[in-house]
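idk why but the lab printer keeps eating my pages so im just putting this in chat instead. protein + phenylalanine:
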Amino acid sequence: APVGRETFSSRKLFILSAIGSAVGLGNIWRFPYIAYENGGGAFLIPYLAALLSAGIPLLFLDYAIGHKFRGSAPLAYRRMHRGAEVLGWWQVLVCFIIAIYYAVIIAWAAMYTWFSVTQAWGDDPGSFFTGEFLGVSETVNVGFNFVPGVFWPLLITWIAVIGIMVAGVRKGISRANGFFLPLLVVMFVLLVAQSLFLPGAIDGLNAFFTPDWAALGDPGVWAAAYGHIFFSLSVAFGIMVTYSSYLKRKTDLTGSGMVVAFSNSAFEILAGIGVFAALGFMAFTAGSAVGDVAVPGIGLAFIAFPTIVSEAPLGGLMGVLFFGSLVFAGITSLISILEVIVAAVQDKMGWPRVKASLAVSIPVAFISLLLFPTATGLYLLDTFDAFVNSFGILAGALVAVILVAWVLRKLPMLSDHLNKVSSVRMRTVWIGLVAVVAPVVLGYILINEFISKIGTTYEDYPAWFVGVFGWGMAAALVVVAVVLTLIPWSPKSKLHHD
Ligand code: PHE
Ligand code: NA
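predcted complex ->
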């Protein structure tokens, strides 16, 4: 490995950072409504199946590649095989796209932490969110009419995150996770406890946990479970490859992976309980069924939750705990996304930490600030999110498993590596899951995604808009990944590992 490559100073800090990356916006608002829409309590069966059959095996694969080849995603793949470098750049670019909009949601949550105190949304949180706060324009377009109420918090978010990135693995990433993650756990446990005492909470929990067994016969429900697990565990983004490259030689990889995976799931189920208890209260005050108040997606956090904050006893506190949790969970995930890009540039150019982190973070922040705090930013965010999740992450994961398992046939070697250092050992089962189960499931989900996205224009946005920022963006990533692969490596980078 190149001299001076930083390491996490302890396994504990690595695990904290890996959990910090995994636990993000996906756990807090995505999991609860995905579970609710896909069979409620019965969703736990496909969810656990997806976790055990694909999520954890692919997490181990990322760990094995990062730890064995000790490099950022492009360098680690390149050391595995010359032709695999492009896959690493693909993951870097996916992280770039996610970073530019993920930060925006953190900025919103930061503002809503404050709004929870002032009740800025008045008595119509729905029109406040898209109207006064985001100032969303009627027409779906790209424009540069800035919305200061989003621009300033976004700028502050970026300054904080850039500070962490420049400080590096030990002084920046480890410290930020060591501080934010325990804080997040305390705040979130308080939030869940508070919501369980609200009137109507039990109805919310019943809505969440009452199984719809028929849903298990629906392939879409299984696809939703697998799709969510990949996103939630941050596998196949290059994140876990990068973080595990900073581990010391002798580290229990699979044992750490199990801790990370089960902590992430525990957090998710806790979030489901908290969010649905709160929705039960909302339904109780509105005199309607829980199903009628469960707004999906962004609306759950930024429209339904403010309503609860306004009505609940000690609602302001509840809002601060909820939106504060979103901010902390989001920041620890955002730094992991940026680290993928920073590490890649550092390796490829042979630059020192500070130079690489500034050269990456400043342009990323600039693009984020240019595109999203505008009257049309929400449309762009939504389209990027939808396309990068399906075609960026899932397609990247599919190509990775086919390449590593079938073309390069590296699984036996990677399995040896895992077993040499780890407490939880497996070989045949792991290889079977990565080589056979993962590609079949991913292939199935992707074909369905493709058919559904090609069939109708996404969200009824204009065809040109989805064409450029959905399909066009995905195609551009492939081209840019190839171009980045063609740039020569710095003479300082050792392309062959020892
Ligand atoms: N795992 C994160 C979550 O559940 C998602 C994520 C992490 C997305 C890092 C991008 C980068 O929210
Ligand atoms: Na997660």
